[in-house]
Specification:
This protein is α/β, with parallel strands linked by helices. It has two domains: 99 residues, 2-Layer Sandwich (Enolase-like, domain 1), CATH 3.30.390; 245 residues, Alpha-Beta Barrel (TIM Barrel), CATH 3.20.20.120. The protein is 36% helix and 16% strand. It contains twelve helices and 15 strands. A hairpin with a 5-residue loop joins strand 14 and strand 15. Helix 9 runs parallel beside helix 10 and helix 10 packs parallel to helix 11. It is globular.
Length: 383
């Protein structure tokens, strides 16, 4: 079998989809994207596929990954690893379809029959976010994550801190104590504020605080972990096992949240999860993207003991109404009940893409950029 061709489709709201074709008619799909850098990643995917993959064997997934990563003198980082990730999704999809098995069975077999998923909560006022949380709870979700605050200055006033704490308190009250609740600082909080904010959040029994510091300051995670009872998490802006290594060695985090679209794909996410397991670190993969990325992430989760939960942003509770699941031939592919999705059993990634809809949606202009936020003094704020 040989790789013969590829196509890339930019589709709403901000996704880039890859179709990889072979001479035997087997097709694989991937989702290579850095949100806000679609055109850059598109170019990187083209360079990698045309320069290294066309005419080669797609079933040699490990070799192909090493070739795409290691043959470059300059390697790693968000663009190259996200381009590699989408290619890797598609290669594993082809491999699973060739052998007639889900990817997770090719990676060692499943260790669970269903996976807990969490719902991201939006909203600014405590009342609105609590209302949203309660509605999602009644739809079946039992795990949630919310952003701590919007623009947050390096040194903040007690009033701003209190408002952010009130949002967390309102959600905890809305969902009760039998639900998991995580808080994402999103890298918006500075080191001078982080430790005190963690202390203020301890009464709410959080499953983690994510990104309490920017990745650029990850040497500070260990000290924060020593000062709080809340599990510390990070990882959506880390791009390989090598980025995570020092966090494990320093006992700096209890949870990691790697993203299968940014961390080099299924091949690398599986290695990151195995490395984390050797340090007794839980894995909750980040995934606010499309059904291809979600399916790829699930394949690793179902064969990894320490993957305890999975992010999603697809509207699993109402698949017939979800515009994001409409890219699948069967929007009900991911069977959702009681906060869990069932193990996929179809070959490859376990999904069938509605290619006609993909082509139709790709006719729209899609080039999303994240907003630029500013503080009151007009300096740039973290988004």
């Amino acid at each position: 079998m040989q790789i013969t061709d590829y196509e890339l489709f930019a589709v709403p709201p901000r996704w880039l989809l890859l179709k990889l074709e072979t001479d035997e008619g087997v097709v694989g799909w991937g989702e290579p994207i850095i949100q806000g850098r679609l055109d850059t990643v598109r170019t990187a995917v083209g360079e990698l596929v045309e320069g290294y993959l066309l005419g080669t064997d797609p079933l040699r997934t490990e070799y192909q990954w090493r070739k795409l990563y290691q043959s470059g003198y300059f390697r790693g980082g968000p663009i190259l690893m996200s381009a590699l990730a989408g290619i890797d999704h598609a290669l594993w999809d082809i491999k699973g379809r060739h052998y007639g098995a889900p990817v997770h069975e090719l990676l060692g077999g499943h260790v669970r029959e269903r996976m807990l998923v969490y719902q991201w909560l939006g909203g600014e006022s405590p009342e609105n976010i609590a209302r949203s949380a309660r509605a999602d709870y009644e739809q079946g979700y039992r795990a949630f994550k919310l952003n701590f605050a919007r623009e947050f200055r390096p040194i903040e006033t007690p009033a701003v801190v209190d408002r952010a704490i009130d949002r967390v308190a309102a959600v905890r009250e809305a969902v009760g104590d039998d639900a998991f609740l995580g808080v994402d600082f999103h890298g918006r909080v500075s080191k001078p504020m982080a430790a005190e904010l963690l202390r203020r959040l301890e009464p709410y029994d959080l499953m983690f605080v994510d990104q309490p510091l920017l990745p650029e300051h990850s040497e500070g995670f260990a000290a924060l972990s020593d000062r709080t009872t809340i599990p510390i998490a990070t990882g959506e802006r880390f791009y390989s096992r090598y980025d995570f290594k020092h966090l494990f060695v320093d006992d700096a985090v209890s949870v990691i949240q790697p993203d299968v679209t940014h961390v080099g794909g299924i091949s690398e996410l599986k290695k990151v999860a195995s490395l984390a397991e050797s340090f007794d670190v839980a894995v909750i993969p980040h995934c606010p993207l499309g059904p291809i990325a979600f399916a790829a992430s699930l394949q690793v989760g179902f064969c990894s003991q320490n993957v305890v939960m999975q992010e999603q942003d697809l509207g699993l509770e109402a698949p017939g109404e979800s515009q994001r699941l409409a890219f699948l031939e069967d929007p009900e592919t991911f069977a959702f009940e009681d906060g869990y999705v069932d193990r996929p059993t179809g070959p490859g990634l376990g999904i069938e893409i509605d290619e006609e809809r993909v082509r139709e949606q790709a006719e729209a202009e899609v080039n999303w950029y994240n907003p630029v936020w500013h503080h009151e003094d007009s300096s740039v704020a973290e988004w």
